[in-house]
Amino acid sequence: MPQRAATIVGGGIGGLAAAIALHRRGWHVEVLERAREFTEIGAGISLWPNALRALEGLGLGGAVRALGAVEAAGGVRDRQGRWLSRTDNAELARRFGHPLVVLHRADLLRALAEALPAGSLRPDSEVSAVDGSGPRPVVGHRGGESRPDLVIGADGLRSAVRRALWPDAAGPRYAGYTAWRMVTEPLPEPPAEGAATWGCGARFGYTALPGGRMYCFATASLPAGAASGSSEYAELLRRFGSWPAPIPALLAAVPAKTVLRHDLYDLPPLPSFVHGRVALLGDAAHAMTPNLGQGACQALEDAVTLAHCLDGTPDVAAALRSYDLLRRPRTQAITRRSARLGAVGQLSWPPAVLLRNTAARLMPARAALRSMTPVLGWSAPGDRATAKGSEGD
Ligand code: FAD
């Protein structure tokens, strides 16, 4: 088969992963990225066993694992700091083949970008038009025009590719709560275990990064676009400064100006992820709330699956239809599950909070872990021997 060309719109985790998967199979790839650099200012990111399996499919499993921290255990606490449930990372690894790994997003992006030939990365190349009506799709961008065999729209929640080719699709919907993310300075004695602390209409979580730093995240139920007071950091202190240890000490170790805040959205289900020779992938296809920590994990799964579907067939459109069938039910089911978990996590009516906490306390740890099998037990197509189930299958 002559060398085929793919244009990937968006150089986030999903776009870079897709480019690597295709490049490894001999495709000529170009990644068009709106930003001036291929980097992430974001904080930490958790990669679950399914994501590590996808990264293995990209030849990067060991390299990415080496960049992350693996905590022995974690869990959920109530507003007083009492444990509601615990997760044993060794048990997770025993059951699903990998532990939960947490790393800085910038480190993950760098590892992905370095796996591609430098010439394939095209920063400062915002895509403004996509035409899928001819025999070959046409992508109009800041640097000119591309006419590849395949276009991958990996341009995130507010995807220009999706808007161009799915003009009737509903836009992102607000989840009802906002999120802050931050990374502490290295701590001399970081907490031994991570935890998510659930209050009334608010949550605060923390987990270890390499080098003694902690990645922290917090949520609060607020209208979309609600302004914070003087600064996001002051707002966090006001809301969480009196929460149980070690939260106040962690907040004290966060450089005030580095706090990130984003309102959380997900995407109503699309009727298809593909349009001829154009496929959507990652948040562009199925943006989800971060309650399961699965958005990027699913983007990595998408990338590996898409490349697998294109293996050995000259018929790009047919391969994309297979990709759609494999990925849409699963990712849309996980999006729904994440939204449900978020609604429970953000409960604010005290009797409902009490009921939630009691149910969480009574749920055996093994049952909780087993309930994650459809999400975490994924394995790449072609590697089904180790599969333990698949949400939406
Ligand atoms: P994006 O990361 O949004 O990348 C899209 C890229 O496209 C960007 O680089 C953008 O600049 C570029 N772009 C956009 N428009 C254009 C254009 N017109 N032309 C060219 N380029 C363009 N997921 C996890 O797996 N684990 C977690 O722990 C986790 N935590 C999260 C916490 C929070 C608070 C949030 C909000 C999300 C979290 N997620 C997590 C989800 C995860 O961040 C996303 O699912 C993931 O980053 C999606 O990757 P992507 O490549 O699809 O999109």
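The mean pLDDT is 95.
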